[in-house]
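Hi team, as promised in this morning's meeting, here are the two structures we talked about. I've kept the exact order from the run log so nobody has to guess. The first one is mostly here for context; it's the second one we should focus on when we meet again. Sequence first, then the predicted structure tokens.
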Amino acid sequence: MQRTSFAQMHCSIAQTLEIVGEWWTPLILRDVHLGLHRFDDIAEDLGISRNLLTRRLAYLVEHDILERRPYQTRPVRHEYHLTEAGRDLAPALLVLMAWGDRHATPPGGPPLRVVHRACGHRFTPEVTCSSCGEPVTGRDIEAQPGPGAAAAPGTRVLARLTPGPPAVYKPSS
């Protein structure tokens, strides 16, 4: 199935999805984040075809989400590691996992638990306010135009709802 490109959309979510929105990508990033760095290990874990995995890995390297590091010279073989941009995606993946644990849990319960290394306790990933530290849900936010706000594809209607500072778009609850 041909996927729609979001490259022309004037939206940070659309631009992110343009890079990491292909179905296999979050699972590949999860595996690399959890320590599967070699092609064969990722392919086996996911059951993904080798040529599809090759294309996804190349795309993620091209977009600076992953980097290739040689681990063998004859024949040359590479491992894949998250770049800084790739590591910055880990919290988003954790929040997706928490949502899945609450709303789309596989039979038998969550297949993975996460432990905070600093304190040693299991935790449920959540979004918190960077100023006060309180948990934040969709009901707790208001969106205001940012410095790149524009009436463009992906934000055209929102721009009408937020006709400039200090207008506020309040998501529905």
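And here is the second protein, the one for discussion:
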Amino acid sequence: MAEELIIHSGEKSEIYKDLIPQIKALLDGEKNLMANLSNCSAALHQAFKFWWVGFYLVEGDELVLGPFQGPIACTRITKGKGVCGTSWGENRTVVVPDVDQFPGHIACSSASRSEIVVPIRKNDVVVAVLDVDSEHLDHFDETDATYLEELCAWLGNKF
């Protein structure tokens, strides 16, 4: 596949339906995890213009910053801390409509207003999380959760 995305405007679900097969085709056959996560974060950022999109990888008892698109970010997050650490610790997708209302939110950027974090599992163990931030309140919903969970389930096979 050429390194070019074809994204049609429209409903969020339609954009995901266009995008996810293209991400899978782009990553198919590439074995380097960092290259794959880099292209995945770039594709999501390009398609949706998210404020920040990237990955944190489990290393021991911390999440460590991986490939991302957007402003600089927190480098290490402990299990159970912030939205990412909560998603990892509870092994579930966490959607936060207003980060200022999330107890223990880690403010890497004051511009971030809402967030979704989706765990990536390999053999039922969380190995990373996908973290997406928006500068708008209440940006993420069940549509985002459904499609990002599908993508993350597929990405788990790349680890």
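Starting points for discussion:
Helices lie at 12-27, 33-48, 82-90, 142-155.
Residues 11 and 17 are 10 Å apart (CA to CA).
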